[in-house]
Amino acid sequence: MNISCRDLVPLIRVALDNGARVRFTATGGSMFPFLRHGEVVELEKVPATELRPGDIVLAQRDKERYVLHRILRVRAHQAYLAGDLGAEDGWIPLSQVLARARAVCRNGRWRRLDTPTARHSGLAWVRGRLVALPALRLALAVRSRVVPRRAVRAGHDEQPA
What is the b/e burial string over 114-134, where b = at least 16 CB atoms within 10 angstroms of the residue's CB? Predict the structure, then answer.
């Protein structure tokens, strides 16, 4: 069953305000490779004073638009948000941050997103994405061309018995 953000977010807010952690299936590709379309993400409410650069947060952009993006910078009562693939939300009030992403379930295993290592890795990816994305594309292109050739060569190099 699919529920729109407009209908889901009020339920998430009530659960978070009552101390619960909330899990939902993320959609979209703006946080690749750290969050992928269709993965389950666990959210928790944290005080604004605990939010750090590198945290992935659920935030309200405007009246009915919500994003699950990374905090790049924090200053007095504001956070600068962006997706890991480059979509920038800009500065938003910390009061519009609803929750921090605590973990993501990938291939049946939960991976923490709120650790210093996860935050630093995310920030390094974002800061290096101008180099990292083309390098990733190149590596995938090379792999797609090299792997089949190796298989063909292996077949030609073999001598009949």
Answer: beeebbeebbebbeebeeeee
